[in-house]
């Protein structure tokens, strides 16, 4: 929890402690898919009915 940023209840914690090598092709694929995934997450977040039904 964040005690210093008003309105923020959670703060992201990294899931890796050390840098890890990552194949360039996979990195490029992740970069290409990121905007599509972000759009999906945004649209799902705006559908309150879907969220209520799927998370209850």
Automatic annotation (TrEMBL):
It comes from the Eukaryota. GO terms for molecular function: ATP binding; glutathione binding; glutathione synthase activity. InterPro entries: Glutathione_synthase, Glutathione_synthase_N_euk. One of its GO terms (cellular component) is cytosol. This is Uncharacterized protein. It comes from Nymphaea colorata.
